[in-house]
Design a protein that fits this description.
Helix content is about 40%, strand content about 15%. By secondary structure, the protein is of the alpha+beta class. Strands 4, 5, 6, 7, 8 and 10 form a six-stranded mixed beta sheet that branches. Strand 5 and strand 6 form a beta hairpin. Helix 8 packs across helix 10.
């Protein structure tokens, strides 16, 4: 008699071949953040056992909770999540992959005429095309098409068919051609006139050179990050705001420069906005 594999068994099999996995609740939704990491208050501390940022043993932070550590997957802290899980997700970027999520027949037709064939996995509404290679994730790069790679997760729906091929430049170009969110991102985090900490606070910077040097150093810190980019971006935003966030000296141009540096390292506009908001919250701004 054939036994239907449980989500945990499927996850263990994937982790054993180097695919970082995590449990999903009904509706393809990750399990909620633990109290320690609610609203990312941990700041995204790195942990080599995880594909992402969290030191907490619970499956929080969605894609960042994905892991190949069999001891973590089998741990008591994860037991309840696996009992309640309805499916398994994986972090494509952590496995060195990019998933092109084709959500309808029109998107599939476009891919078949525009892109090289590769491993294909059927989904409830379309197909996943899986390529070998990593790139920044991006949604709605064209009608019915999402890119899931770094800092994202995809539902595991089986090994698929066809041989996997290298990530083509045409897929990378999709994200480049999409409307740039860089100009929009600073608008979501505009520092109020008079300073983030309240109007009328005396400026401590004396000359614009002090602020310019601080922003330039922050850009350099982000640009030179070789690992834990998400954590580096958060800590850099926190440092900038702790020094310059209460007197009103920060402008949208300064914030745009920081966001641009972060996005050049693979961060999305949403992650930049979240990191900036979390840093402001941490400092009480």
């Amino acid at each position: 008699m054939t036994t239907t594999p449980t989500p945990l068994n499927a996850a263990l099999a994937l982790a054993a071949v180097g695919v970082p996995v995590l449990p999903l609740r009904a509706g393809k939704v990750p399990f909620g953040n633990c109290r320690t990491c609610a609203r990312n208050t941990c700041g995204g501390r790195p942990n080599m056992k995880h594909a992402g940022t969290c030191t907490c043993p619970h499956p929080c932070h969605a894609w960042a909770a994905a892991t190949t550590d069999l001891a973590v997957l089998n741990s008591r802290e994860w037991a309840r999540a696996w009992r309640e899980a309805s499916a398994v997700a994986y972090h494509p970027g952590g496995a060195g992959l990019t998933v092109l999520d084709l959500d309808n027949a029109q998107a599939i037709t476009w891919a078949r005429t525009s892109l090289p064939a590769t491993r294909t996995v059927r989904t409830t509404r379309g197909e996943h095309w899986v390529y070998q290679g990593v790139m920044p994730s991006s949604n709605a790069v064209r009608p019915g098409v999402d890119i899931k790679s770094s800092m994202s997760y995809a539902r595991w729906l089986g090994p698929g068919t066809r041989a996997i091929t290298a990530l083509p430049e045409a897929v990378r170009t999709l994200a480049v051609k999409a409307p740039s969110p860089i100009r929009q991102a600073p608008q979501a985090v505009t520092v109020p006139a008079g300073g983030a900490g309240g109007a009328g606070e005396e400026c401590r910077h004396r000359t614009p050179t002090y602020l310019e040097r601080g922003i330039a150093m922050a850009e350099q810190r982000i640009t030179e990050a070789r690992s834990a980019v998400h954590a580096t971006v958060y800590r850099t935003f926190l440092a900038v705001l702790s020094t310059h966030g209460r007197c009103g000296c920060l402008t949208e141009n300064h914030i745009a420069r920081l966001f641009t540096a972060a996005q050049a390292k693979g961060e999305t506009a949403r992650h930049c906005t979240d990191a900036w908001t979390n840093a402001r919250t941490t400092l009480g701004l």
